[in-house]
Every structure is written in structure tokens, then in C-alpha cells.
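queue> holo job accepted (glutamine)
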Amino acid sequence: MTIIRSTAAELAAGIAEGRYSAEEVTKAFLDRIAAVDEKVHAFLHVDAEGALATARAVDADRAAGKPLGPLAGVPIAVKDIVVTKGMPTTAASKMLENWIPPYDATIVTRIKAARMPILGKTNLDEFAMGSSTEYSAFGATRNPWDLKRIPGGSGGGSAAAVAAGMAPLAIGTDTGGSIRQPGAVTGTVGGKPTYGANSRYGLIAFSSSLDTPGPVARTMLDAALLHEVIAGHDPLDSTSIPQDPAPVVAAAREGLTGDLSGVKLGVVTQFAAGEGAEPGVIAAYQTGVEALAKLGADIVEVSCPHFEYALPAYYLIAPSECSSNLARFDSVRYGLRVGDDGVRSLEEVMAATREAGFGQEVKRRIMLGTYALSSGYVDEFYGQAQKVRTLITRDFEAAFNEVDALISPTTPFTAFEFGARTADPYQMYLADLYTIPSNLSGGPAVSVPVGLSDGLPAGLQVMAPTLRDDVAYRVGAALESTQEPRLSDQIPDVADKEL
Ligand code: GLN
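queue> job finished
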């Protein structure tokens, strides 16, 4: 098996046992990036030297007989909305085009402590707003399965990097679905941890009450291994939960035994009908439900009546919080500064900078959010949306009194062609129809590849109770155990594909 086709768990074992060096492993992924990323455009920045230096240090430690952590020497790609000291971090926005952060996000500090070589920074929709990477200021990423199609978003770069064998693992951030939806449409695993279980310190904020960093991988076990590296309390994040992370690695291993007897899974009535969903996606999802039943899971239908209001509530809450968070890009503190000719007023420079620095979708959301928060409207819009959020949380609580986890398709449609959904913002927003409820409630959810629809990957989503990420990993891993070969092992031969 070649290095780039190995899972992160296999690579870690291979390095620990001396079958290959960490340097060889990092080099193999850097070579793959050099060979195919011109076509895929998953990376905004590649740090070959930094990654190789970390890899060599791991090899030196091993030679000296020092103990290695569970992912030591396994390379990783990081979504470019997570700050990395000394390495460009742009959020795919002109606003931060030349910004080099003076500090590391907590999850990056933990990745470095785990001795994982950082290959570089991956593309996304500007400030993580979008579902296709078409809103990146630096050009879209292409889906390795079909280069004429989107890789999902906002974290399309991380998903495409893993799907194309350019990185065994990647970091994503999920505010409304940006880890899971790219996972589903690229045939990779994406995990959104419990809100607050992973530190947000050093994430460029989009919607602070929703943003959650998490793993992108080819297998559930790999995702779990990365989850355990980055999770855990962080005093630098006031919403970080002071509690040990859920034991997701043990849960994934338990799931891989393929036994789900005694586990009760709820099919969400409101999503089961698949209204607006592609028939092929629903068919792939159904095979997943049948596979879970064969493993012994008890499958029942559960009604979550407020889930259908999740999308509109999200599109008030997320833009409201973003309008406040993005106020910091004011031409004064850092980032772009346009029109400072010594004549224009500070307000004029600020306006010119924000006009030039933000893309269309970001501006749309700032305007929407500013309006929803304006006095006289705040109760009617933002306040109402927060009430809907509470009702959705109660739907989850009621459901989890009856079942261990909920299941649904991850996204209503497979990877669409470039330009297909940019004309009407609502068409783009629909991509997250099934993923948003977990963001609003804060609970964990994973997307597992479940099959193909017209030759394109589809995902099944497992939603678990808050702080029970282990339940989601167990069920997801059990589903994965029924696939031979795993969908995510079919690394598409991008090099031969036409653009
Ligand atoms: N697609 C959703 C949006 O555009 C979710 C984005 C995300 O999770 N970062 O807001």
C-alpha cells in the first residue's frame, strides 16, 4: 500500500514501528500536492520546509527511543481560518491577504505538541460563509471526484485535500455544516464536535455561538484520533467546557466490531421524506439505514417538529453574529487598508477598505445581520430566531429520551457543478438543511460516506446528545465497518482528469 493511500492510524503505526520515516511520509504527501494540487486547488499555502522539519524531529526522537504520541509524524492540513503563527492566514479574504498571525490557535498548539507536520493551509469560502468554496477570494477548490464540481464548503479545501490523498488528515470548522457537507460530497469523514468541547481560541470568528473546529479524515478511527488530539478544556476560550473530552477513539474501535445491538437510532421524520433531496442521495442513505439495522440497531422514527425552522433561524443568528465579529476589519487594527491618501477621513478609509476587502456573500451577511440586530427589529428577528433555537434544542432533548442517536442524510444533494447555486443564495443555503440543527443545539454530529449517487459520494449523518461525541463515533464507525472497500479508500486519480 502506498503511503498516500494509508490511513492516519496505519501511518502512525508504520512510523512508530520504523517501517518508514516520518520524513518519507511527509515527503510523499508533499509530492502528491505538487502533482495534483494545480488541478484541485485545495491549498492556499504549502509549508514544505516547516512540515519536513517537524517530521525530521519526530524521526530523531524515535531514533533516541523517546515515546511518540498516537499521531506523531502524521501530516495534517489546516483550514485557513485557523491562525498559525508565522504562516499566512487569510480566511480566503482579500481583507487578510497578507496577514501573518503572531500566535497559534489552541488547536494548532495541540497539533504541534502532538508532533504532526503541518503541510499548509486549505481553501474555504471567504470567512467560512458558503457551501462550495466558490466564495473564496482566491478561486474555488475543485472536487477530486469530478473537477467540474464543487467540493462542498466552506471547508472544501480540507475535504478535497483528504479526498485526493494530499493529506491524511485535516482541520475544518463547522458553523452550519462546513465540516460535514464537504465530507459528504467528497466521500470523506467529517466530525463536528460538541460546541465548547474544542477550543475556538485562534479561529477567525464567524458566528461565535456556533463555530466548532473538528476533524476531516478518511476513516472514523482517524477522525477520532485527531479529535482526541485537539479536544479538551482551554482557559483561553470562555465557552470551552471544563470537562474531559468524550472517549471517541475507544468508541470508534467499539463501532468497528460491527455490533450495534441494544443501540436505538431515530430517523428524523421531517428529514425522512427527503423533500427537496435528490432521489439518489435518499437511496444511498436508505442502504445505510438498512446496514445499521443489520448490525442490530433498533431503528425508529422520531419527530423533531421544529427542525424545519432551523435554516431560517440560522440565517438570522449567523449573519447577526458575523456582522458584529467582522466589525474588527476596520482598516486600523490589521489587514487591508485602502484609500489612505492623507485627505480622506478615517470613516472614508474604513468604508473604502471594507468595500474592497469583503466579497459579495460576506457583504450580504453583514447587511442582513446589521438589519436583524438594529433597534426596533432585534426582538422581531434575532430574538425570534433565538427562541426557535431553544425549541430545536428541546426537540433534540425529547428525541434523546427515546433514542441514542438520530440519523439523516448529511446533505440533500451531491456535489453540484460550479455556478449552479450562486445566482440564488437560498439554493446555496439549502446545502445545510440537515446539518444546521446540531449547530443550533450544540450537539455533536458526524458525516460518514454511505454510497454513490450517479457516481458521486453521499453521506449519512449521525447526531448525538451534547457531550456524547462517543455515541456518534460508535455508530459512524459501525456503518463504516460494513463497507468493503471503504468509499474514502477510492482516492480518485486526479492526475488523469481533464479540467
Ligand atoms: N454553509 C453554511 C453557511 O454558509 C455553513 C458555513 C459553515 O459551517 N462555516 O453559513
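queue> The mean pLDDT is 96.
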